[in-house]
Amino acid sequence: MKSVLNLCFFLFALLIIGDKSFSLTNYQIKRICKPERRVSNCIKSLQEKKLDLKKGKLIEIPVIPFKK
Questions:
Q1: Of 16, 19, 47, 56, which has the most beta carbons under 10 Å away?
Q2: pLDDT tens digits, residue range 2-16?
Q3: Residue 51 and residue 24: Cα distance in Å, rounded?
Q4: Residue among 23, 53, 54, 29 nearest 43 (CA)
Q5: How many distinct structural domains can be found in the chain?
Q6: What string of DSSP letters covers 34-47?
Q7: Measured between alpha carbons, how far is residue 43 from residues 14, 17, 19 in Å?
């Protein structure tokens, strides 16, 4: 019974959350690339990754550490 309940929760989460993917806005891309040395290359690569994400392709995203 517990495994059936877990399976139902898993399928529910997969159907509800699985279709949504959030990409960066153009403003966020410009803000992230502002401290970079080559801003135009940074913006171009992030916009290409944004389009690939919207098409459903897998992308590799670098992790930017949070600074207080």
A1: 47
A2: 777 787 777 766 666
A3: 10
A4: 29
A5: 1
A6: TTSSSHHHHHHHHH
A7: 32, 28, 26
